[in-house]
Design brief:
By secondary structure, the protein is mainly α. The protein contains 4 helices and no strands. It has one domain: Helix Hairpins (Orthogonal Bundle).
Amino acid sequence: MAGMTLREMQEDVHRYISQFREGYFHPMTLVVRLAEEVGELAREVNHRYGQKPKKPDEEEGSIAMELGDILFVVACMANALQIDLEEAHRAVMNKFRTRDKDRWTPATSENGKFRRADGEGDRPNV
């Protein structure tokens, strides 16, 4: 769904979870699930950019899918705890913009382009 807001993502997840009698997992279970998903992301990043290549018989994974899994679990946790992720995002960005306002070197015309972690391209791949 192109252009989905965080609120729409939370609603989409809620529609999916609401189909099942079990509903949302307990917050502690969701934290454990989040840790599992972050571990899977770490494994994919390590295989692609780190020093641990995949075994020849291992399937190729997807960093994008692992990030999607993390977003799903985060939306589940937010929904279970009745947290609006758009409001949370605004508050966090305000915190970073005030707390870290003098922490980083301002961008100039020479260095103002987005830099991917792998050093390729000048725009995020979204």
